Amino acid sequence: MALVIEAAHGQIIHAATDAAQVRSGTRLTDARALDPGLVAVTADLAGDAALARRLARWAGRWSPLVEVDGTDGLRLDVTGCAHLFGGEAGLCRDVERRFAGLGLSVKVAVAETAGAAWALARFSPSPSQVFDLGPSLSPEGRGAKNGERLSAMLAPLPVAALRLPPGPTRTLERLGLKTIGELAGVPRRSLARRFREVDNPLDALDRMLGRKPEPLTAAPFEPPPRTLLRLVEPALEPSAAGQALELLVPGLVEQLEARQLGARRLALSGFRVDGSVGQASVATALPSRERKHLARLLADKAAALDPGFGFDGFALEASWCEPLGAAQDSLVEEPSGTREVARLVDRLSVKLGTAKVRRPEARASHVPERASGWRAVVAEDKSSPAFAGEGDRRRRWRGSSGDQEPLHHAAPFDVACGGAQDRHGPPPHEIVGRINAPRPQRLLDSPEAIAVIYATPEGLPRRFVWRRAVHDIARVEGPERISPEWWRKRGTARLRDYYRVEDISGRRYWIFREGVHGDGRGGVPAWYLHGLFG
Amino acid sequence: MSRVVADLSLVAGGRAANGSFGERSAEQCARAPNEQPGAQARGGGSLLPAPAKPTLSEVFAASARDGGATGFLLDRLPRGKPLLWVQERMAIIEAGRIYPPGLDRIDLIHVEARDARDALWAMEEGLRCSGLGAVIGELWGDPAALDFTATRRLAVAAERNGVAAWLVRLGGAANLSGARMRWRVASAASRPNGLNSKASGVAAWDAELFRARGFAPGRWLATGDDPASREGAQDPVDLVAAARDRAVAAAGGGRG
Question: Would you state the CATH architecture of domain A226-326+337-349?
Fold first, then answer.
């Protein structure tokens, strides 16, 4: 089995199992020529990178300084940590054991310099090893002594272990310098002349041997603001969570203030005596660290937490924060409109669900139901039962062209698939290529079939029946022809001819005929009522 | 802002129509009560009665299949601040969801409420927020949750915070309510279209104010703004812009 990635000239092997016997970088077609039964799966590079970051967090158990090294490595500064795991050998064994527990194979090397560890971990033939530092001497003496031992150890490794770009590595190989030992034997001056400063193998060699520094830049991990409350006695009454919330919020707000952050998502966890955890979480539209607002958002959900056998602890965590500078409160009682509205949206979203509180969003489309989508104001929370009950509305629309799949997405569906993705799309009301043709003020989620009487098949409608009532058309304007989006729909989708009609009592509607006679995409075109003018 | 085209007042005495109300501009009522009434709205017509302070008004659509109430309401909403538009689920199914491309760039927050109780709760929350321009709630039928107490709460919240509240009733009966102004709106035959005699023109509504505090009831034939005469809108007839001096040319002439 092999993982493949898309390259300029087709798919190439990214990684393969040993049994597959292909090298990474081979084209998939070449590999298939050798082994037709090769199973190829697309590699998930982003997922791999995310896993590496997660593993780096997890590797914090061995050392506080952890760095993701390239795409396939972790680098730990274990200075002063190894003795906790029984020395460096013990640390190596522990790392191997725990990674094996995760189902991951790992190769560990501990060395004095990062470069040496990198080289040993990747190019050393033995499984895992520790470069023994030996008894501590003064830094200079130790450096000199260990430098010799280190060079001896690295000498048999290929020059690729120097971490140079492919170009210089190839040059070295062409020069006949296959191993680090051979390279180290060449006079320094001749090497320095032959290579550019940036990819000079001497630099790499010096870094590897500890003659030049190679600092580790671990991403600082800051735990999210969190406050804890431990109860002496388990609290059985349902109001306990609400009371705990009131005690926890001030502490959290203090932490947020100290770090100049505002909470976007808050979670209250109630730890029950039987080990289970009840959780209530809310999201906000704008970062906030206001006590009253945060407490009010969570209050309802906290009160609904089931105490079970009793809570013995609570934690309030701001799992998603955004920078929020210190704000000067207004001296006069005039709260800012934007903030007020954001708070309102928070309250509404908490109670009604994030999918129910939305702002319009213009989209680049001429199809009416696609031209205007809705975007949730507060970021979607996966745990909320979003879009329940949308299905029944979509079922009402039946396209006449024979395909069972709904021909046109109803507006709520578009939000379901588009809202989460293009949250950074154009802001609302920035109409892309604004249409001057009048649009109705109300649009039915799914067009409703109407029976229309017309003078000629391509002529203007005269009378229609909608919801069992007859509307005699007094005035009509149209058609406005809107073609189906062939890049989204099947080829059988039919165009629409929209008419603005006004019946004899003055009610104005937006109706359309789907298709034209003899377009070869179905039978007699059907009519639908789509919108109501105000 | 909608203009009165004709007075259809059938109310006893007809005081509402002929006297001061028809003449009073809504903007004056709302913003400058000390100015003399009697100003004409732009375009020549008089304006419909409007409350001096933001309050709760109720609009009954003559029928759920009539979008006229929406147009009438849209014409009377304040601009500049975001609006909270709460639609009950049944109202969306029966009369359609509001469609932003047809709303003339209103800054909008839309709430889809499961039932009347949620809708009323959302409206009341919205009325507590002074950052909003108006709160609109659309309810279907006569829900049990919408009693006198509920409407009274909305009216008090609207008046206390100065946010206009509009309750749109689709297919409901006008029973007891705390609304300060109660309208019944039906579509009327639209104004003649100057460009196409077969097409409908500017929307017109048959608006009946059947109960109001401080105003006598009346019935009017009102029409919306003519998009052609609105500021910034291009007149479809005037395809060529009027000729005028260029600023650069004027400056250059002064120097030379």
Answer: 2-Layer Sandwich (3.30)
